[in-house]
Q: What sequence folds into this?
């Protein structure tokens, strides 16, 4: 089979875009299409270069791993869950690539169901089962909540900027704002990165080490929100008032958003916690 570089670029770009978008959805990440398209184009360029005789060595396992890491970084940025995102992207790419190769083989040789009997089913079930176990272990928390229908798509607007993320609707999350009396959305600072100025990003990056009071002194428009949790008798969260927010199908004005200094999800399937009722609240719009 002769595969031309331009066709290889197109096919690899489409395959990478499918794998990256699936990674984002399974990991509860916002679909930032500009970054996804750029990463997919880089993946297509890498696939096309591997066809050129001087660059065939670039198709080795080490170079493929480096390319996958680069595409993951371009698509989703650096975060504490980077390696989980990389593993998910790699697994999805392998599964998608295997499916495409199987279809290509059947199409080239003529579609004949009898040929399925010649497949090595031991390898099929071993590899498929291994991928399933890895996905189940790494993303078991997200899968569990997703099946229960507890994940909600969110959008937060602040000072003319907008960030999209996934929240877990948790009935055990009862934190409310003493000022407004309304439920509080607790989100990871990294998931709201689109809202911050470069200076704010630098301060918030040190939030886990320096603490909420230190960060509030350096940020305008933020305040401290007292809270209690298991193992924490009296804590403080850095918070701000979002101009608008959408959680699921509900819209809110002036919603209090608190920043969690640590990840709120063990599997990366969501980046925020919400305990408000499914119906509209006082500030809904």
A:
């Amino acid at each position: 089979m002769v595969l031309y570089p331009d066709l290889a670029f197109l096919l690899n770009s489409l395959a990478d875009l499918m794998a990256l978008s699936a990674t984002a959805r399974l990991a509860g990440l916002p679909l930032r299409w500009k970054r996804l398209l750029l990463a997919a184009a880089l993946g297509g360029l890498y696939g096309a270069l591997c066809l050129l005789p001087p660059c065939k060595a670039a198709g080795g396992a080490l170079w493929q791993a480096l390319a996958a890491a680069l595409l993951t970084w371009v698509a989703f940025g650096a975060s504490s869950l980077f390696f989980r995102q990389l593993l998910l992207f790699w697994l999805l790419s392998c599964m998608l690539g295997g499916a495409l190769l199987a279809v290509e083989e059947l199409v080239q040789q003529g579609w004949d169901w009898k040929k399925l009997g010649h497949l090595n089913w031991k390898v099929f079930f071993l590899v498929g089962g291994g991928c399933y176990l890895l996905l189940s272990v790494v993303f078991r928390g997200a899968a569990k909540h997703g099946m229960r229908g507890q994940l909600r798509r969110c959008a937060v607007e602040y000072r003319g900027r907008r960030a999209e993320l996934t929240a877990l609707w948790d009935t055990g999350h009862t934190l409310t704002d003493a000022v407004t009396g309304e439920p509080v959305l607790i989100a990871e600072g990294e998931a709201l990165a689109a809202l911050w100025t470069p200076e704010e990003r630098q301060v918030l990056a040190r939030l886990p080490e320096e603490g909420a009071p230190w960060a509030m002194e350096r940020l305008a428009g933020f305040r401290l929100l007292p809270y209690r949790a298991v193992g924490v008798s009296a804590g403080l969260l850095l918070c701000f008032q979002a101009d608008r927010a959408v959680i699921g199908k509900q819209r809110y004005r002036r919603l209090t958003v608190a920043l969690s200094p640590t990840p709120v999800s063990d599997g990366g399937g969501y980046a925020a916690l919400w305990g408000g009722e499914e119906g509209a609240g006082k500030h809904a719009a």
